[in-house]
Amino acid sequence: MNPMVKKRLRIIAILTTIIWMGVIFMFSADSGVDSHALSDKCLSFINKSIMVFTGKNLQLSISPEHYALIEYYLRKMAHMFIYLILSINIMVVLFTFNISISSRILLTTVICFGYAITDEFHQSFVGGRTASLTDCLIDTGGAIMGIIVSLILYCILYTIMTKYQKRKGIVTSKYQ
Predict the structure, then answer these.
(1) What confidence tens digit (pLDDT) does each residue in 30-50 have?
(2) DSSP secondary structure string for all residues of 109-126
(3) Longest C-alpha distance within the chain, in Å?
(4) Alpha-carbon Rg of the chain, whole angstroms?
(5) The whole model's pTM is what?
(6) Which of 110, 74, 73, 116 is nearest to 90 (CA)?
(7) Cβ-count burial 153-176 (b if 16+ within 10 Å, e if not)
(8) Among the ranges given (42-51, 93-102, 111-120, 132-141), the one the predictor scored with the smallest mean pLDDT
(9) Contact (Cβ atoms closer than 8 angstroms) between residue 152 and residue 87
(10) Domain membership flag for residue 176
(11) How many distinct structural domains can be found in the chain?
């Protein structure tokens, strides 16, 4: 890859990573009431979608305990998703450096786990929120899924780029 293109990609990737970390920080700054209200809005959207497709009201069809369980899992999936995106951003940054895949995986995992810990610590100062090691592990699980997605996308893009370069007769090193 052209060094200037790589440098631009690195800057953009670093900026998007910092912005995404800011998004995570803002979600963590929401009070417990605000956080639950957002979850309720998401669950309401899901309920309306189910109503459109099946004609059944999810909230009326199941017990309040099961409905609360669905909200709980929705919240945990949101944790996983935001850290999946964070890890993809970090992997893109690390792909602009000439380091091994195992180093990229390890660095991304450590950065995401570290940020999850600081995020939970931050939440402990927000009204109605608490710090949770379980959430740190869930966040890290989402980050690992993002790492896997990143590696799959990298392999696909690398294969496409290599085939294109062979067709055009461009000679490059194996690991750019």
Answers:
(1) 888 888 888 889 888 988 998
(2) HHHHHHHHHHHHHHHTTS
(3) 64
(4) 20
(5) 0.85
(6) 110
(7) eeeeeeeeeeeeeeeeeeeeeeee
(8) 42-51
(9) no
(10) no
(11) 1
